[in-house]
Structure formats: C-alpha cells, structure tokens
Automatic annotation (TrEMBL):
<comment type="similarity">
    <text>Belongs to the short-chain dehydrogenases/reductases (SDR) family.</text>
</comment>
<keyword id="KW-0560">Oxidoreductase</keyword>
<dbReference type="Pfam" id="PF13561">
    <property type="entry name" value="adh_short_C2"/>
</dbReference>
<dbReference type="InterPro" id="IPR036291">
    <property type="entry name" value="NAD(P)-bd_dom_sf"/>
</dbReference>
<dbReference type="InterPro" id="IPR020904">
    <property type="entry name" value="Sc_DH/Rdtase_CS"/>
</dbReference>
<protein>
    <submittedName>
        <fullName>NAD(P)-dependent dehydrogenase (Short-subunit alcohol dehydrogenase family)</fullName>
    </submittedName>
</protein>
<dbReference type="GO" id="GO:0016491">
    <property type="term" value="F:oxidoreductase activity"/>
</dbReference>
<dbReference type="InterPro" id="IPR002347">
    <property type="entry name" value="SDR_fam"/>
</dbReference>
Amino acid sequence: MTTALVTGAGGALGRSIALRLASDGHAVAVLDITAAAVEETARLVEKQGGTALPLTVDLRDATAIDGAFARTAEELGPVGILVNNAAVYPSRPFREVPLAEYDDVVAVNQRAYWIAAQAATAQMVPTGGGAIVNIASITMHGGWADLAAYVSTKGAAAALTRALARELGPHEIRVNCVSPGAFPTDAEKIHPDPEEYHRFVLERQSLKRRGRGEELAAVVSFLAGPDASFVTGQTVEVNGGWVMS
Ligand SMILES: NC(=O)c1ccc[n+]([C@@H]2O[C@H](COP(=O)([O-])OP(=O)(O)OC[C@H]3O[C@@H](n4cnc5c(N)ncnc54)[C@H](O)[C@@H]3O)[C@@H](O)[C@H]2O)c1
C-alpha cells in the first residue's frame, strides 16, 4: 500500500475519497484550506483504523503545496496516489466576473492541479510509478450559465489528464479523470431553490436518486488502484446516467 494525497479533503467528496483510500489500506495526507474540516477528515480516517496527515494549505500558494508534499513524504513516505479534487465555484454572470475572481478560480481549480501533479510526479518517478486522478465536472460537457470560469477549469482538468497520461506513461504513472454529476454537497448551495434543483437533477439522470459520495469515491479508488493498472488517460463519468459518452 502507498501514500495518497487528497486535495479539498475537508469537503464532502474529498472526505469520501480520503475515507475510501484509507479503507483500501493507504496512508492519506488530507489537504484543505480549512483547518477544522481537514482535521475532522483526519479524525474520521483514524476512527476507521487508518493513518491520516492533516495539511492546512491554501492551494493558491505554490510554495505551500510543495511544502505539503515534502512533509507528506517525510511523515508518511513518498506519494504514490494524488487526487486533485479541491475546487471553488463562485457563481456570477460572465460579463460581471472580476478578473481577480477568475484568477482565483484558475489558481485553485487548474494551476494547483498542475503544481500538485508536478510535485507528485517528482516523488513517483524514483519509486517506479503512481496514479493521479483529477476531478472534473459534468458541466464541462454542456456548459453552465454563470459558472464560466469554473467550467473552463474543469475542461482543463480533463485535457491535462490526457496530456500527462501521454507523457508520464513511460514512468508507469497513470493519469485519469473522474467527472462527477450532481452530488448533494455544499457545492449545491449556489442554486437558490434546493427543491427545484433536486427535481431538475432527477429529471435528467437515468437513475432516479441522488448520488452518494461513496459512489464517486469507489471509482476514484478503482482508478488509483491495481485493478486499473492498464487504464490511463481516461475520463469516467459518474453522474447516474445524465451525460452519456
Ligand atoms: N458536488 C457536486 O455536485 C460536484 C459536481 C461536479 C464536480 N464536482 C467536483 O468535485 C470536487 C469536490 O467538490 P465538493 O462538492 O466536495 O465541493 P466542496 O466545496 O464541498 O469541496 C471543495 C473543497 O476544496 C477546498 N478548497 C477550496 N479552495 C481551496 C484552497 N484555496 N486551498 C485548499 N483547499 C481549497 C474547500 O475548502 C472544500 O473543502 C470539486 O472538484 C468539484 O468541482 C462536484
């Protein structure tokens, strides 16, 4: 078993992913900007018998990301699995988005995925390989009004996945992407009417129920694990049959 690092692990889906990777037997470094949330994730991992290292890091800070990887290697061993999951999703009409807000979205959802992948690769190459899983979003397919910056970074996550898979395969590093549909997390609070949004989602999904974080985490676990040893450069849609590809 190896060391996994999950970003945004204080949020709902990141926490589910961290818990699943821990139950797969990996030591998990759980990284988030919110100390209380990430400490709670670490507590839950330890409660189920796992090993967790909570890291309070702002992913807009490249030096802090590198520091987090160095600390993880020191305390848990070199990173063999990276899950780039953290994201911000401010909602605003495209024509009103201040450049500073756009820069912030790109910094967390795109630039940090890049920096973390570089830091992880530096630890994976000497150990003979690893797995990177980038989290995209169903919105990259059909777009979404008032979320243009977010949507564009999610398309970038899928494209980065393919570019890195191509380049890192010779080092036995697999890079895949998971594209979630609509999971009932904090992310949904951007929709003003929860009941209406719930109906909207179920109308579009083939499965007439909401997805659970564990169902997303199971796919991440598969892609990060030995059963996916010949899978790289792929994007897996986990959306209850909303967008089908
Ligand atoms: N929930 C959904 O329906 C849904 C749908 C499609 C895609 N996704 C994707 O799934 C992933 C997880 O989403 P979620 O629903 O759990 O959202 P969430 O908001 O609960 O979790 C995101 C986490 O990222 C952290 N984060 C934000 N900015 C950060 C920064 N600067 N530094 C460090 N951490 C930071 C937040 O603190 C939060 O804990 C995201 O990539 C999101 O785009 C979610």
